[in-house]
UniProtKB/TrEMBL annotation:
Localization per Swiss-Prot or TrEMBL: Cell membrane
The name this protein goes by in its record: Copper-translocating P-type ATPase
Region of interest (Disordered), residue spans: 103-135
Family the entry assigns: Belongs to the cation transport ATPase (P-type) (TC 3.A.3) family. Type IB subfamily.
Length: 320
């Protein structure tokens, strides 16, 4: 590789919104044969929204039969806690809760002792609800399997609601208040307009796309269907630490793996991909992901992944 060709290639890449870490990155890009794609925030936009109709147990009346205060609404309590999280699920819940609070002329309660359980959910105490100033409620919001691990059972009507929501591709999370499951919140995101085409182009370039997510299998299958990723190439309900293992296993089987991600939960997998292949971070993503990656995609768009591969191959042709 001549330095000039690499320089021209890097410059061309930069024009296309592909920022590479160093000169060796272009050469690595052209040898990729597998591309692991994070779902939420990568294949889909990171903007999730609450589907109130598919949710269950929200509204001030439904919570343990009490209608005395809108701030006892599980949506409010969940929103108060999720205000401390950067997760797309959290953003959807907090936005919906704020909207409801505003429409009722109230505000979100405060929270303390917030703990983020990466890839699972959040816990903390929600304080100072309007009807009970000075009171505190232990709140947990997260995936059903994790709520169950905490010894909290899901009543029949909520597990039905969860199943119904997930069967339409939503992400369902459980809200537990003082150790009791009281609501299921369904949130949805949207596949980026360019994702299906970009994934088809990657395949045409000889690169196998794999969908990787911590989300439930039904939501993952729903997105895979929209972008035509083989159901056998979908890995769902994968915890953040296990995302790295998925990349390592593909590498062990001989694949040269690129991984595209945006979240804190993708950082370890991006770094792992970088040991033998490449980590690519969405420019819209978290700093942790960007720092762990070899390539930053300035436009939050999978088109940029295709552009990176094309430029790297064109640069190789110039060198030859
Ligand atoms: P992804 O791989 O789709 O980015 P994560 O690994 O971050 O997903 O999260 C996996 C699952 O854990 C989510 O689909 C959700 O059910 C749950 N979860 C993660 N963070 C939160 C949160 N802040 N609030 C509620 N649920 C969460
Ligand atoms: Mg993500």
């Amino acid at each position: 590789a001549t330095p000039t060709a690499i320089l021209v290639g890097s410059g061309r890449a930069a024009q296309l919104g592909v920022v590479i870490r160093g000169p060796e990155v272009l050469e690595l890009t052209r040898s990729l044969d597998t591309m692991v794609l994070d779902k939420t925030g990568t294949v889909t936009t990171a903007r999730m929204s609450l589907d109130a109709a598919a949710s269950a147990g929200i509204g001030s009346e439904s919570w343990l039969g009490r209608s005395d205060s809108p701030t006892l609404d599980p949506l409010m309590l969940a929103g108060a806690l999720e205000a401390f999280s950067e997760h797309p699920v959290a953003a959807a819940i907090t936005a919906a809760a704020r909207e409801r609070a505003e429409s009722e002329g109230s505000r979100l309660p405060g929270a303390e002792g917030f703990v983020n359980h990466e890839g699972r959910g959040v816990t903390g105490r929600v304080t100072g609800t309007a009807s009970e100033p000075g009171s505190a409620r232990e709140v947990a919001v997260g995936r059903a399997s994790w709520i169950a691990e905490r010894g909290i059972a899901l009543p029949g009507h909520l597990s039905e609601a969860l199943e119904a929501a997930e069967s339409t591709g939503a992400t369902g999370v459980v809200v537990a208040i003082d150790g009791q499951a009281t609501a299921v919140l369904a949130v949805r995101d949207t596949v980026r307009a360019s994702s299906a085409t970009a994934i088809a182009e990657l395949r045409a370039l000889g690169i196998r796309p794999i969908l990787l997510t911590g989300d439930n299998a039904r939501a993952a299958a729903h997105v895979a269907g929209q972008v035509r990723i083989d159901p056998a190439d979908v890995r769902a309900e994968v915890l953040p630490a296990e995302k790295r293992d998925v990349v390592a296993e593909l590498q062990a089987s001989g694949a040269v793996v690129g991984m595209v991600g945006d979240g804190v939960n993708d950082a370890a997998a991006l770094a792992q991909a970088g040991t033998r292949g490449l980590g690519l971070a969405m420019g819209s993503g978290t700093d942790v992901a960007i720092e762990a990656a070899d390539i930053t995609l300035v436009r939050a768009d999978l088109d940029a992944v295709v552009a990176a591969v094309r430029v790297s191959r064109a640069t190789l042709r110039i060198i030859k």
